[in-house]
Design brief:
Elements (H helix, E strand, L loop, with lengths): L16 H13 L3 H14 L4 H13 L3 H14 L4 H13 L3 H14 L6 H11 L2 H8 L7 H15 L3 H14 L4 H13 L3 H14 L4 H13 L3 H9 L10 H13 L3 H14 L4 H13 L3 H14 L4 H15 L16 H15 L3 H10 L1 H10 L5 H14 L2 H8 L6 H14 L5 E5 L2 E5 L1 H4 L7 H15 L4 H16 L11 H18 L6 H8 L3 H11 L7
Helix pairs in contact: 1-2, 2-3, 3-4, 3-5, 4-5, 5-6, 6-7, 9-10, 9-11, 10-11, 11-12, 11-13, 12-13, 13-14, 13-15, 15-16, 16-17, 17-18, 18-19, 23-25, 24-25, 27-28, 27-29, 28-29, 29-30, 29-31
Length: about 575
């Protein structure tokens, strides 16, 4: 009699979304967010059209305060697949975390209109009540009683502009807000940073001096002064002022703690920076920059094991993160050969220049392959795809344009749509991506972050001339603030299309100059006409009141746009 071997349970090599969702749920029960995120990401990757896995990943990212990443995932889903009401509730939560309160309210109303008796209906109504009550909103956001809610939104948008390499536009946006809210100190401090990034160090110094003359103990302004001293060659004075900062930073905002930590590292105060970063980590344990700075600090102090732990954590947050992979390998190499040549580490979260050039050369060689072989590499080599996604973080539009064109050639609609939703990318490239999507035949409308606004529309509506004078940009901004915020997407589409037709009549983009009053009247006229084309008649007096203009100015503006109505 032959002995029978017991058959073990054989798992298939590839698992479906349901398998990973179940594993993720078990990790959530243990409150292990990183392990759960890993499983839910696997579920989402196996079937991106599955709403449950998309919502699961987005919810964890929200809990980790990675609001933009979570929002990009949800907006991408609703732009590509049939709308799921719960997505809009999640989008509202993310907008709130990003201080985009009007968009949060609009998303909540969309959720309630799609599912009035849904699982989150009560929460959505309660959420709307909070957004409509200044005292409740102040408590929910944790801002001081003398701050303006619009300041939070404007500062968020200004930071996006800085990340996208548009400091000049950020300066204009902040100045415009400060003309209306002159004692918004948060905006004044960010203005100083924006001026510095724009190369206007004298302006940054004047702004910093003004804030400190009004608030001598303002930590953000003191950080700006230290930075200006440091970059101005006065490192001893900068170090002296840095060391004189209060030791008790318990009440400091996370962005202030971040500024202090960066200055401490710039001035080689690594032990002090470690203490600051540990305090910051308690408030933001999943923030990429915080974790990288902790790894950087550990490396400079010779603690290679701690540095490796930091980058392993980043790779658990995002396994496709090639920057974290680079620094993890560098930390391992330094630990194994402490006397070897030290690799250059960047305080900013990017790979150093030699590594960047090596990667770009490798991609150039890959692009030289026959198209059939290149397509196979694209489909089968995950590391190659991750490297191409990394290229979109390189501050060179020519390089990014090449990658976006490659996505188009590969038919990667998802990657192009995702690019439109990034807040760290400029508008010019996004407009080119819109044209690529239309050429691909990707279904409209598209969702995008354009002109510091989250918008949805058709290509004809979004493809305005790339270099609009500031006055016409303000017309568009006013339209978006009123028309888009009210959820009138169809009317907004007609309004912007009318503006495009009006501007198209002028050769070489030589547009007539318009005054501040005309900016408002142009926006009002477009709002009114767009509503009419969408079948929504609006009262002229109400429009005038909304845009703070006279009826004479409205009628003058209407006369400029009404001739183009014949084309509809």
């Amino acid at each position: 009699m032959t002995e029978q071997k017991s058959k073990g349970k054989v798992l298939p090599f590839r698992q479906g979304a349901a398998f990973y969702m179940k594993r993720g749920a078990k990790q959530m029960e243990k409150n292990d967010l990183l392990a759960a995120l890993c499983r839910y990401r696997q579920a989402y990757a196996s079937d991106p059209s599955n709403a449950d896995s998309c919502l699961a990943v987005a919810e964890i990212l929200y809990q980790m305060q990675r609001f933009e990443e979570s929002n990009r995932l949800l907006l991408l889903y609703v732009s590509m697949y049939e709308a799921v009401p719960e997505c809009y509730f999640g989008i509202a939560c993310n907008y709130f975390g990003m201080h985009e309160f009007d968009y949060a309210a609009e998303s909540l109303e969309t959720y309630l209109s799609l599912d009035p008796n849904g699982a989150f209906a009560y929460d959505a109504e309660d959420f709307l009540d909070v957004l409509d009550d200044d005292a409740e909103l102040a408590a929910a956001t944790g801002i001081s009683s003398d701050e303006d809610f619009d300041t939070l939104t404007i500062c968020t948008r200004a930071r996006h502009l800085l990340d996208a390499g548009e400091p000049g536009i950020a300066v204009d946006l902040l100045r415009e807000h400060l003309s209306e809210v002159p004692r918004a100190w948060r905006a004044w401090n960010l203005l100083s940073v924006a001026q510095y990034c724009a190369g206007d160090r004298e302006g940054a110094k004047r702004t910093t001096d003004y804030v400190l003359s009004e608030n001598p103990d303002d930590l953000s302004a003191l950080c700006s002064r230290i930075l200006l001293l440091c970059t101005g060659g006065q490192k001893e004075a900068a170090a002296e002022l840095l060391d004189a900062l209060p030791q008790d930073l318990a009440g400091a905002a996370p962005e202030t703690l971040s500024s202090i930590a960066v200055l401490q590292m710039e001035l080689s105060r690594f032990e002090a920076a470690q203490m600051t970063l540990r305090r910051l980590y308690l408030a933001a344990p999943y923030d990429t920059n915080v974790i990288h700075q902790m790894g950087y600090c550990a490396r400079m102090l010779g603690d290679f094991d701690e540095a490796q732990r930091c980058y392993r954590r980043l790779l658990r947050l995002d396994p496709t993160d090639t920057v974290a992979k680079y620094y993890l390998a560098s930390a391992k190499s330094a630990a194994e050969q402490p006397s070897g040549k030290a690799a250059y580490w960047s305080l900013s979260y990017r790979v150093p220049l030699p590594e960047m050039l090596r990667r770009l050369n490798h991609i150039n060689r890959m692009f030289g392959l026959p198209q059939g072989e290149l397509r196979i590499r694209w489909k089968t080599d995950e590391s190659f795809r991750n490297l191409l996604n990394w290229v979109l973080t390189v501050p060179d539009d020519r390089v990014k344009r090449a990658i976006l064109s490659f996505y188009y050639m590969m038919g990667d609609e998802r990657a192009l749509r995702s690019f439109l939703l990034r807040t760290d990318q400029g508008d010019a490239l996004k407009r080119e991506v819109l044209a690529l999507l239309r050429r691909m035949g990707a279904k409209e409308p598209y969702m995008a972050y354009l002109e510091s606004q989250w918008i949805q529309g058709r290509v004809s509506m979004l493809l305005l001339p790339e270099k609009l004078p500031p006055a016409y940009e303000q017309v568009l901004r006013l339209l978006m603030e009123h028309c888009f915020a009210d959820g009138q997407q169809e009317a907004a589409s007609y309004s912007v299309d009318l503006l495009r037709k009006y501007l198209a009549q002028f050769e070489d983009n030589h547009f007539p100059r318009i005054s501040t009053n005309q900016e408002a009247s142009f926006a009002a006229a477009l709002d009114l006409l767009g509503g009419r084309l969408a079948g929504k008649e609006q009262d002229e007096q109400e429009i005038c009141k909304r845009y703070k203009i006279t009826q004479i100015r409205l009628r003058n503006a209407l006369a400029k746009f009404e001739p183009f109505l014949e084309e509809y």
